Amino acid sequence: MQITPSIAGWLARELGYRNYDIEGNPSLLHKPFVNVYFGAAYIKWLSSHDGKQRSEEYVVRAYKGGIKKATHKSTAVYFERYFSVKRCLPPRRRKVECGGHILAPDILNIDTSAQVKTGCQLFPYFSSHVC
User: Fold this and answer.
1) Where is the Transglycosylase SLT domain (predicted)?
2) In this predicted model, what pLDDT tens digit does every residue of 20-33 receive, in sequence order?
């Protein structure tokens, strides 16, 4: 999610996202679960930055260009690119046909009962809160 070590460290220090010791080992950001954990935390923070409910456009532009440039014309391209991709995706609840098969959102569900029993030991960088 292109989260920088400085942003991840700030999230850990100031906002309490401490499931991973990112300040002691910034290379953890190369682990997908850790990267998504901090990326999602940053998006959550951006969505209510300064105590205001922020628009999807603001969040995308601030995520890519920083909060100081979120409304600057230089970050408009970030949202345009994001929106062009989003516009091409099928709706979440719609069934999609792919190669003669019907793909519904349910087909992507994963039974996590095995991971719950083992405390997510299969995925050491997967937060146990998700299992």
Assistant:
1) 1-73
2) 998 889 999 999 99
